[in-house]
Amino acid sequence: MARYSSLIDAVGGTPLVGLPRLSPSETVRLWAKLEDRNPTGSVKDRPALAMVARAEADGLLRPGCTVIEPTSGNTGISLAMVCRIKGYRLICVMPENTSQERRLLLRAYGAQIISTPAAGGSNAAVAMAKELAADHPDWVMLYQYGNPENAAAHYLTTGPELLADLPTITHFVAGLGTTGTLMGAGRYLREKVPDVAVIAAEPRYGEMVYGLRNLDEGFVPELYDPSVLTSRFSVGPEDAVRRTRELLEVEGIFAGISTGAILHAALGMAAKAVREGVQADIAFIVCDGGWKYLSTGVYEAGDDASAASGLEGQLWA
Amino acid sequence: MSVSVSVPTILRPVTKGEKTVSAEGSTLAEVITDLDSRYSGLGDRLITNGALHRFVNIYVNDEDVRFTGGLDTTVGEGDNVTILPAVAGG
Known about the structure:
The complex is a heterodimer.
Chain A: E1 16-18, E2 28-34, H1 45-57, E3 66-70, H2 74-86, E4 89-95, H3 100-108, E5 112-116, H4 121-135, E6 140-141, H5 148-165, E7 171-175, H6 180-192, E8 197-203, E9 231-235, H7 237-251, H8 257-276, E10 280-286, H9 304-309
Parallel strand pairs in A: 2-10, 3-4, 3-6, 4-5, 7-8, 7-10, 8-9
Antiparallel strand pairs in A: 1-2
Chain B: E1 2-6, E2 20-24, H1 28-38, H2 42-46, E3 47-48, E4 51-52, E5 56-60, E6 63-64, E7 80-85
């Protein structure tokens, strides 16, 4: 590592590590990009910093301003760090069914939390944040779901880092939430690497999270462009938990649960490459470490199904 | 071909409360047609102007059908079809 003049200068530049024991062969290899090595421990430090920097450059954010953002946790924590350093007040609008650790961390950073009903999932948080922002024109909503700087951060940093560390990359696998990581890094890799596969792993939550009143309340992030993706998989809590535990047990990587979902899709791609007899270098994102999910009990003994039951009703990605 | 279809809460009023229903067909379009013959109105909820509703995601064995041929996606005996409304992540 190197020396940085402040914490926010230390965002990005994360290691890419091989997974020799989980990789199926010498020619089909898995690589983990450790985004938990960012200052607040998640991949969201990249878009948070980029969105704030742009808002400052555009003159929207001035000292003493209030920032409001809908978030299920990690973006909020990243923004809380950036806002703390730069002197902004932060309000996070967050579904109530998110882990206790996320709330504790946000409060530690001095952020204010407004909770929205579990049944509405992130949709309700997005809707309420939009309402509050409309009622308070002096507040600045960065809006990670539609802010081009979210994807741009990954286009300018995550993508180039991956290619520099793994010029033979054949697959890029990441989680689909705001879609920023996949849109940004995926677009970059597609421009530079002919035939690279860009794979989305989308968390499938418990039923309650999909409790909309009607289909027209559905939500697709404005950033989403399906033409960037090669395929998109829905990964349920049991598969996500099983892979999270496998990553810890086999390779010693203590990751959060969304990473397990991503690894599940990455292993599916690896198995396919083995079946087809082709060489593959599959890079995937470790979104965050497991620290914020310890209270869910998924890392403790018991079978994967009972461990996954601790996630019922939670927004675990 | 008989497949198992998982129905989200929001559509269960149409499937008489059933959470999982079985259906016949060799493509997703045929599966939906078969379902609509027994659960009237389901097709209209899933398909608008010949394409999947913007806020409906359908997965065959966990893979999003928009990347596997859409309504023409082939299904096989015992496949799992999952219908979900599109919700925000992040």
